[in-house]
Amino acid sequence: MKAGGPYRRRGRLTITTSSVALPKWRVLMHVTVGICTRNRGERIGRTVASILASDYQDFDVIVADQSVTDEAADAVRQAAGCDSRVTCIRTASVGKSLALNTVIKNARGPVVAFTDDDCDVSPGWLHSLVSHFTRDPQAGEICGAVLAGPHDARNGYIPDAPIRATTRITSPWARWRERGIGANVAFRLDALQAVGPYDTVLGPGGPLYTGEDFDMTYRMLKAGYAVLDVPDAYVVHHGFRTWEEGRSHMRRTGLAVGAVYMKHLRMGDVAVLPTFVYELVSCISWTRLLTLQPRNGLGRFAGFLTGCLVSFRYQVDRRCRVYRIGLHDGVDEPQKTGSDPGKQPK
Q1: Rounded distance, CA 243 to CA 122, Å?
Q2: What 3 state SS string does the chain have?
Q3: Where are the domains of the chain?
Q4: Which CATH number fits domain 24-241: 3.90.550.10, 3.40.50.1820, 3.10.20.740, 3.40.50.1110?
Q5: Which of 37, 82, 245, 342 could join 117 via S-S bond, C-beta 3.0 to 4.6 A?
Q6: What is this structure's pTM?
Q7: At what angle do helices 298-310 and 273-282 cross, to 10 degrees?
Q8: What would you report as the CA-atom Rg of the chain, rounded to the nearest whole angstrom?
Q9: Own/partner long-range contacts of 190-194 (Cβ < 8 Å, ≥24 apart)
Q10: pLDDT, tens only, 113-124
Q11: In whole angstroms, what is the distance from residue 283 CA to residue 250 CA?
């Protein structure tokens, strides 16, 4: 399957200086920005506000809200004001992959960009993403840099992905070279529709906690699309975790990543082997382990091996390359936030 050509759509644009800046007449893609949230509260309002402050104007925003209270919806409504580009979809389903699939179903495209509900996007984020897609018609996915916001490293950390140079990956054998994470990723809508839904066993709120982003990137490469890592389309992440929380997070991440790549091995896909080995070995910080320091990665290593075994609890849909449960659950219809000042239904 080959990636399709570039899409173009007219829109109101204000162009800023960028290392990949294109003439205004060439930057014509509409972007649907998706944010998945559950019980984040008022913090998501800052995320929406940062998107609305973008230098690029041809976009809409879909918030897939799985919260049990109205606090997040109220924050989105306050940030959006009367801006009809913002849509809030309330759903009783639980799981980030379900929410991502809801955004994809309702996206206008032809580009869909995702960020997390505890991130602030840079003003040139959307323009940089569109510029890269326009320059590279074979790119199905772009991963941007995720920078850690201010925090005290003595008490904990913020997950990040500090991409320092543009990298183009075209083969699933080289999946291990990709450095992006789900807090900053964009796709061609037709590529997502061709590759299939996010795996609902994976991701926060799902049975295996995370890994939905790693899995989708591998499936994009298997489908013949190029994947780009770019430093200029960046977001700032504010999701602070204590070191104690980090230990649990790393164990669960290891479990999910092991299950992600074992799924593809179970399908007889040998192209995943280099990434499987790389992820297994890189679980451990060898310097810290050899000097008997904490946070040496043994927990993630054990989690990875456990995830390989947990994979066999699930059947695999070989057509879509996803685990078989819940493929189409939790996809809901949109309700306009900017144009409707009333409460969103639960």
Answers
A1: 28
A2: CCCCCCCCCCCCECCCCCCCCCCHHHCCCCEEEEEEECCCCCHHHHHHHHHHCCCECCEEEEEEECCCCCHHHHHHHHHHCCCCCEEEEECCCCCHHHHHHHHHHHCCCCEEEEEECCEEECCCHHHHHHHHHHHCCCEEEEEEEEEECCCCCCCEECCCECCCCCEEECCHHHHHHCCCCCCEEEEEHHHHHHHCCCCCCCCCCCCCCCCHHHHHHHHHHHCCCEEEEEEEEEEEECCCEEHHHHHHHHHHHHHHHHHHHHHHHHCCCHHHHHHHHHHHHHCCCHHHHHCCCCCCCHHHHHHHHHHHHHHHHCCEECCCCEECCCCCCCCCCCEECCCCCCCCCC
A3: 24-241
A4: 3.90.550.10
A5: 37
A6: 0.86
A7: 140
A8: 19
A9: 190/4, 190/7, 190/109, 190/110, 191/3, 191/4, 191/140, 191/141, 191/220, 191/223, 191/225, 192/104, 192/112, 193/104, 194/1, 194/223
A10: 999 999 999 999
A11: 9
Token code pair at residue 12: 């109101």
Q: How far is CA 123 from the centre of its chain?
A: 19
50-89 pLDDT per residue, tens? 999 999 999 999 999 999 999 999 999 999 999 999 999 9
Amino acid at 20: V
Residue type, 257: V
Structural tokens at position 239: 């999701």
Owner of token pair 């239904």: 345
The residue behind tokens 């075209």 is 170
- Name the token pair of 75: 């924050």
